[in-house]
Amino acid sequence: RTQEEQSRSAHEESRSAATPLLEQPLVIEGKRRRVTRSAAEGGSTAQTYGYSNTAVSESRLGSLEPKQLTLEQVDAYLDEVSRPARAALKQKRHRMRKARNKVRWGLDLFNPTNKEARRAIVASMAEGPISGSNPSPVESKLKQNIQAERLRTGRRQLSDREKEIRDQVALTIKAMNEFAADDDIHLRKPIPRRQGKVDESYLHLHDTMERMVRAHDEACAEIGITNALVTLQEEGEVMSEDQWAMVTHLVLTQMSYKKAHREFGAKADEAVSKEFRQLHMRDTMEPMKKEDLTPEQRRAALETVCTVRQKVRNDPDSLKGRQCVNGSKQRGTIPAEETASPTVNMNSVILTAAVEAHEERDVAVCDLPGAYLSVDMDEMGEEHVHMILRGRMAELMAMTAPAVYRDYISVDGRGNKVLYVRLKKALYGLLKSALLFYRKLWGDLSSLGFEINPYDPCVANKMVDGSQMTVCWHVDDLKLSHADASKVTEVIEWLKGEYGDLRVSRGKTHEYLGMTLDYSSPGKVKVGMTDFTMAMIEDFPDDLGQFVETPASDSLFTVRPDGKRVLLGEERASIFHRFVAKLLFLACRARRDIRVPVAFLSTRVKAPDQDDWGKLRRVLKYLKRNPSLPLTLEIEDMSAITWWVDASHAVHGDCKGHTGGVMSMGKGAFMDQCNKQKFNTRSTTESELVAVDEVMPKMIWAMHFLQGQGFETKTELHQDNMSTVRLEVNGKRSSGQRTRHLNIKYFFVTDQIEQGWLRVSYCPTDKMIADINTKPLQGALFKQMRAAVQNCPVDLPPENSLCPAVAVCNAIASHLTKLQECVGRSLVGRSGEAR
What we know:
Layout (H helix, E strand, L loop, with lengths): L1 H16 L8 E3 L2 E3 L15 E3 L2 E3 L14 H32 L12 H13 L9 H17 L3 H23 L20 H23 L18 H10 L3 E3 H8 L1 H16 L3 E4 L6 H6 L1 E9 L8 E7 L20 H13 L3 E6 L18 E5 H10 L1 H4 L4 E2 L5 E7 L9 H15 L3 E3 L2 E9 L2 E8 L2 E6 L2 H15 L3 E4 L2 E4 L2 E4 L5 E5 L1 H10 L30 H18 L7 H8 L7 H16 L5 E5 L4 E9 L9 E7 L1 E2 L3 E6 L7 H25 L5 E6 L2 H9 L12 H13 L2 E5 L16 H12 L13 H14 L18
Parallel strand pairs: 7-10, 22-26, 26-27
Antiparallel strand pairs: 1-2, 3-4, 5-7, 6-12, 7-8, 9-16, 9-17, 10-12, 11-12, 13-14, 14-15, 15-16, 18-19, 19-20, 20-21, 21-24, 22-23, 23-25
């Protein structure tokens, strides 16, 4: 009211003064502005005044003549006009905040069940200019004044909030543009409001999506699939790639309980109630009176998280509820070492699998369902942890067991029903749940007489009837082995008594930690990841074309100068990072033959370029040749460990070397190492000495781990550089001026040799198996080394190979039309003609 009175009085004073301003500079907010005419004298009456590249027209200024305007009049006008604009922006911001809270991501706008969020977003987009459009000059000036007003009043975060909301709307529009399948749908502009109804093009897009989802469900029903994400068809193209992306967004999505309750009503309540009944039957929580908790305990109470998943689309009976807890409040209150649980080392899994195949043990793999709920926090001596259930979830919990929970329901300050409970079991979501389960599982195994391997806390052994029983576990996934199958059965039955029904795999083939362990061949274990490899090849966005014979070309380590590099876009860089991570997961387990390119590509994920994309594509084309090639391990002598260690000198762009190592106990690479060296070296001898020093921790660990398993071993190290061998064996006596600075490196190796467990011997270069991990080999040499590390035939035929004539034609066509895969001269000229 005060501002209105001030502006009205200033306006009346200005009209009485009527001081012209055309003859003097105009000053607004401490900055000089000049007044100009937009039309010649005596011409049109359209005249403008300049305000920082913003023109306020005569029609916007009311009925006043331009010559009668004063500085006070302009300020009063801007203040009066900006007041309703501020109120409108405040309402719009509140409306958009509500819409943003309802819309988790822009793609949820396409969900036909989320009508309220869709209406809110459409309405907010129709209110005014969105990022990317051009606001009018007057609105720009008003926005500047509004921002200045906020700065003067100290409300700085409002403009940031407005920018955040506008960015979210811009992302929504971008997502709609990217996923619009039809050419006649244009959604780059804000959707206008049409008497409370959405735009016709938007409705058309929705109808198209609904038809695609129905077609997907019908196709699944015809072939008998009840839980499928995407249905593939042999002949004909059902939908485009963008359309499939839109369909998969609506299929098998997990939703919150509130959303499920709006969509399915009583069915969602039934699914959540079933989950609550299971938690109650397992004595997971104890109700607490609100008055019995201190204010600190009530503030520290963890929020419950309840989700609902629809296993089969359009089938409300397939809803599955899941109850967990949000443990984020515990961060900072629990030491970091108490929030992490040990897991089995992958090298331990490989070595124990090779031992099991060598001794022809019976192997079983089992999964403990609801593992965390088996941990009694009171028995573990943990402090009390409280959880709060609000609203409808508190009511459902009370209806599960009214005699237990009903009297503990209370009301908070907002009038909502709440239920405080004390967690008695390690519910999923607590920071210490994994560690508590590990302690319980290890305590149970210890009570049976198992002893932990001191070099892997997730491997335990026990002598049963003169034979060793081994158990290794990754959280709740266990692998057990013994020479007598009945002894394995006894342990499984004991686990069932402690943890309930188990999912058990018996026989010769098992799925464990993403790998397929095949013990069908006596004395051998085959580690395969066929499905993972095939899925990776199919998911790659580019057409791979014909396969290649090697995973990398000779120019793998060559990198263009910064001025000539063409960096990948944000989307492709993200895809590059994801596929390199998948390749690393594969190379560390079943495919030792792709170690070198994967190690190099791992150093390029921060700023990949077009050459790196081509090198990634080359690895996938090589995997396409034999996607089901397993790593076959076979032990010939349990007491003999053989290591091959080599290095490539100054092969990287920064002139650093590359370390490679391979370990075997017979046939196949049991362990390996492939990495870029940490610092520069001055010679090949120095590089190989550094390589041995880098591989030495794994050599020591493998020796001690096998000793912990009950096997006495001797280790032999093969090297193809006599100068390096002399430095390692003789120490300082073989040191000269050029190697004096490396005393610590070879003194450590010499000390290990003098302890008696390690012996160094010379190996010819053509038999140095570690070469496959130091450089991109080609031709017959690569085939020979691949056969050594994978334990496969040297002349490995490609899977589903074509006839020789067709293969040659495809290879020539692939070379003439392929994308650039490495640095160097292209095979295709600028005009497109082959050179």
